[in-house]
Specification:
Radius of gyration: 18 Å
Helix content: 40-55%
Order of helices and strands: HHEHHEEHHH
Shape: globular
Strand order of the largest sheet: 1-3-2
CATH architecture of one domain: Orthogonal Bundle
Distance between the termini: 38 Å
Number of strands: 3
Strand content: 5-15%
Structural class: mainly alpha
Amino acid sequence: MTRTRRINPLADCPYTATNAALGGKWKLIIVYWLGESPRHFAGLREHMFGISQKVLTQQLRELVADGIVARRATGKAPAKVEYSLTAHGETVMPLLASVRTWGRAHLEREVRTGTFDDPCCAAARADEVVTARFQIGDTHRPPRN
């Protein structure tokens, strides 16, 4: 099935083109995990805490339609599909590295200025040791034992 690309309302603007292709809560995280290795739907979802099956399906469809992600049926029963980055999708990886660097600096700034009210940040300001299941900024589930 061929999907048509979504329409960018400001086709000549690189910022809106980027936002149309990569905007939203989950797309950069999906691209990050697919940049690590190709994954089946369930394997991808397992790394993304809080995403529903419906939302992951929609986000993957949009990424496929935009040529960032490739969808390939593996032919194994039951009908499994593997997702991976396309060559065009690989070009997003340097952007992801920059976004991650900025995000870390932003989190550190919020901790320093006290504008990020999170139990882990509050403990860090008080120089307490915190044992947390998830670290600030984690968007994936911890590995299963």
